[in-house]
Amino acid sequence: MGKKIAINALLFWPAIALLGAMAYRAYSVEGMLGDYTRCQGCFVEWTLISDATVVAAIFTLLWLSFWAKQRVIRLSLRMTALLVTLLYLADIVAIKLFNSRLNSYDIKTYFDPSTVVEFLHLDTRLLLLLCLIMVTSAIVLILWQHSHRGLKYLTGLLAMISWGASAIPIKESYVHDVYYRNFISVNLDHGSSKSYSTDYIAALDRKYPNSGCTSCEFSDATHRPNVIVLVVESLSMYHSQLFSGINDWTPNIDAIAKENRYFTNFHANTFRSSHGLIALASGYPTMVPIKPFLQQKPVEGYRNIDYTLPKFLSAVGYETAFLKAGVLSSSDSDLFAQSMGFDVIEGSEYPGYQGADRYQFDSVEDLVFYRRVVDYAQTAQAPYFVMAVTVTSHLPFVVPKTRELDQEKTMRYVDTAVKTLYDDLVKNNFFEDGVLIITADHRAMTPISAAEIDQFGLGAASLVPLIVVGGDFSSGAQTALVQQNDLLNSLVSWLSPDCEKPHMGSFLREQPKSAQCVYHSRGDRRDAINVFCGQESGAIKFAGDDTRLVSGRLTDESDIIDYVNFRRIQLTRRAQAEASSAEVSNVEASSKVTRQATFANEICF
Predict the structure, then answer these.
(1) How far is 532 from 537, CA to CA, in rounded Å?
(2) How far separated are the first and last CA of the chain, in Å rounded?
C-alpha cells in the first residue's frame, strides 16, 4: 500500500511542481511591484492569468501523451512539455536574478559556457530547487511508459481550468506589464515590429528634411587634448555614496569625482553594453528598428554611419583606439569598433595578456587591463583618443583572484582599480594635456531597489555616474540633463564651439548645457522607451502610427513621439541598406582627407 502511494505521489509530482513554480513566479512579481505601485495583490492575479496560457499548453501536451499509444508520439509530446517547462523555469531565474525576462536574443548574445557555472552560484537554493523539479519530472515522464487513469483525468482537468483562466481579461493597463506577462507573449508580442503608414512616414520626412545634419565650419583648433573614456562595466548610482547614498562601495571613485566634475543627471541610452557603446561613439540615441525584436541583429543600422566620434577625431588628427578587457567577439565589439572607425582595435586576445587569469567573457581583470591602458597612452601618437571598456563588474560579479561571487567585494575591487589607474595617469603627467571621462555602459542588470525608485523615479533604470577629470573645468556637482550620445556633441563643441548641435547636451564646457530631451531604450519593455525632458518624464510605447505616451507627462508629447518614430524609421532604413548592400562587410572608412572635407561642411548625428 505504501509503495503504491509513493509511486502515485511520484507520478503526480510534475503537475504539483509546475503549479508550485507558477505560484512562486506570481508572488515574486507581486513582491517586486506590489508595494511600489500601491496595487497589492494585483500582480499575483495578473501573473497567474497570463501564465495560465503556458501552463495550459504544458498540461494539454501531457494529457495527450497519456492517451497516445505509440511510444514515439508519447515521448515527443512529453519532451515538448519538458522543454516548455524548462523555458518557464529559466524565465523565473531571469526575473529573479537579472530583473529581466528570458529573451532568445540575450541567450544568443550573452551565453558564455565559461561563465555558466559562475552564474549558477548567484542563488544556489533557487537554482537547485528548479533543477530538482526538472530532473525528477524528466525521469518520471520519460521512464514511466504505462497508462495511468488518474493522471489522464488530472492533466485534462488542469488543462481545462488553465485554458479557462487564460481567457479572463486583465482590465488594468500597466507600463511594466512585461513582468507579469508570460514569457512567450514577451518574446513574440512586440510593438516594435508594427510598421508605420506610408502617409505618416512621408509627413515625418517633410518635418525633418535634413535628417539631423547641420552646416558647420570646423575651426582649426590648436588645442587637441588627449582623451580617455573609461567605460566601467555596469557602474551604477546605487554603488556610490556620492551619487545615491544607498551604498558606499566606491569611495575612491567618489573622491575622484568630488575633486573634479561629476554629473548627477547623466543617463545611459540603453540597457545593454553593445548599444551603450554605440551611443557613446556614434552620437545617436540608440533605438530599436521596426521589426520583431528576435530578428534584430547587433550593431544593426549603425555599421555604415559616415559621422562617428572616432571618424571625426581621426579627421582632425587624432589616433583613436578601442581597448576592451574581454574578447572582441562578445557583444559584437569587433564589429562595433570597426563600424565606428577606430584606428586601433584590441581585446583580451592581445599577446601581452598571455598568462593572465581569465574571467567572464575570457576577460582579464581590471588591474591588468589598466596597465595596458597606461602603456598604450604612453606610446600612442598624440593627440589620441582611447575608449577603454572593462568587464570585471559584469554579472555575476566575480571577485578577481578569489573568484568569489559577491557584488560588494567586486565593486570595491573595481573602485580600487580605478584609483590605481588614476594615480598612474597622474604620475605620467597625463592631466597636463589630457581628460579622463569615467562612466558606464548601462546600469547593472540587477533588480531595481525601492530606494532607487524613491530617489530617481523613472530614471532609476537609466541614470549612471559621469565624472570628468582634467580639462580646466570647474569642479563639483553638475545637474545638467545629459546622456551617452551627448559625448560626440560635447567633444566636437569643445574643440570647435561653432559646431554644437542645439538640441543635444554638452558637458565639456564651463557651463554644461542640458539636452532638449534624453532617451532610454528599456530592457524590461523592448517595445518602449523612456523620455526625460527638463523636469518632465514619460514612457512611450511603440505601436506604429499609434505609438503613444503610456505613463508620465511630456508637454511636447506629439513632437517627441514624432522624433522617436522618425529616428526609428531612419535606423530601419540604414539597416535595410546594410542588408542589401554588397559592401556591407567593408566597414573601412574613407581617407582622413576625405573625412575632413566632409566634416568641415556638416555634422550629422
Answers:
(1) 4
(2) 76
Rounded distance between C-alpha atoms, residue 485 and residue 572, angstroms: 19
Q: How many angstroms separate the CA atoms of 425 and 440, rounded?
A: 20
Q: Cβ(437)–Cβ(467) under 8 Å?
A: yes
Report pLDDT for 593: 35
Please give the radius of gyration of the chain, using alpha carbons only, rounded to the nearest integer.
26
Q: Taking each helix axis from N to C terminus, what angle separates 124-143 and 71-98, rounded to the nearest 10 degrees?
A: 170
Instruction: Say what the pLDDT of residue 102 is.
Output: 78
Q: Which helix (H) or strand (E) is 483 found in, with range?
A: strand 482-483
Helix (H, G, I), strand (E, B) or coil at 519: strand
CB 312 within 8 A of CB 285: no
**Cα–Cα dist 432/469, whole Å:** 11
Give the distance from CA 79 to its chain's centroid. 33
Pairing of strands 536-541, 528-533: antiparallel
Q: Which residue has the cell 545615491?
A: 244
Rounded to whole angstroms, the Cα distance separating 366 from 363 reads 9
Residue of 169, 187, 172 lying closest to 52 (CA atoms) = 169
| Grid cell of 125 as nine digits | 537554493
Q: Is 128 helix (H, G, I), strand (E, B) or coil?
A: helix
The pLDDT value recorded for residue 273 is 92
Q: What stretches in the chain show pLDDT beneath 70?
A: 1-11, 35-39, 97-99, 103-128, 130, 139-148, 171-177, 189-190, 211-222, 292-295, 582-605
Torsion, Cα of 265, 270, 271, 277 (10° steps): -100
Which conformational region is residue 301 in: left (phi greater than 0), alpha (psi within -120 to 50 degrees), or beta? left
Give pTM, 2 decimals.
0.80
pLDDT of residue 74: 84
Specify whether the CB–CB gap between 254 and 278 falls below 8 A.
no
Q: Could you give the CA distance from residue 163 to residue 166 in angstroms, rounded to a whole number?
A: 5
Q: What is the pLDDT of residue 605?
A: 54
Is there a cis peptide before residue 225, judged by omega within 30 degrees of 0?
no
Across the beta sheet with 466-469, the strand order is 344-346, 319-324, 384-389, 226-232, 434-440, 466-469, 261-263, 476-478
Cβ atoms within 10 Å of 90's Cβ, excluding its own = 15
